[in-house]
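User: I'll paste a sequence; please echo it back and then give the predicted structure.

Assistant: Echoing your sequence first, then the prediction.
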Amino acid sequence: SSGINAEYGEVYEDETIENAGPGLLEVFAPTNSLSACSFRGYVNLRPKSLEYILRNFSDTLEYLNLSGTNLEGLTNMSTDSLPELNKMKVFIAAIYPRQKDVEELPHSLHTRCSQQLVALLKLMPNLRVLNLSQNYHLRFNGVDIVSLLSEHCPLLEELHLTKCAVPAEKLLNLPKLKFLKRLILGVVHDRDLSYSEIDAATNLVECFKFLTYRILPHMSNLEELSIEDPTHAFPADDIVAFIDTAGPKF
């Protein structure tokens, strides 16, 4: 097996895989066994390049990191007839766009990004680790991410939803993720872009209360909960109840 590291554009510059020259094409030849691929911070990722990886290495790819890439690579990629990514264990798709980029981004592109993420996650039935930090467009577009994951990625052990603005009631299906060990939640701070208003109805104090009394009793495998809300204080009674309710592995 082999891995590809194209972080921060060190390999591709502004080219797609198909135009990058015979040397690189040999590395990416479907006859090779590619198990890991990282495009972290690579802002020139093109749709054809990402589709090429997913389509040609679906039988071997176990790790894919798209954190901090441009949205174009994902939103304009064709997911039609993509094979299942049965080997995929780790998918990191956190986005960290600059404020200027997000403010100029049309809402239609956010919608497309949500649709593409949903389509990809449905192809990863054996996923163990998922990082969707700051994909707040999922909330905009009505994606019930926890329900989606409980149905299509039931083997998840680690889930990052920081700054995804998941409301408390949408955490109801978390116990269906029976193998979940680590859960990371957090809010969109006032300093984070112009979208902080989406958290007006996503007070993590309420999420913490909901988790403590409704969810935690049914999650015996949970070992770690990280929940960050610097603008609100968690009530002492809820913290005590959380400690009393936490499972034996916590």
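Residues 9 and 42 are 5 Å apart (CA to CA). The beta strands are 2-5, 34-38, 63-65, 90-92, 129-131, 158-162, 182-186, 224-228.
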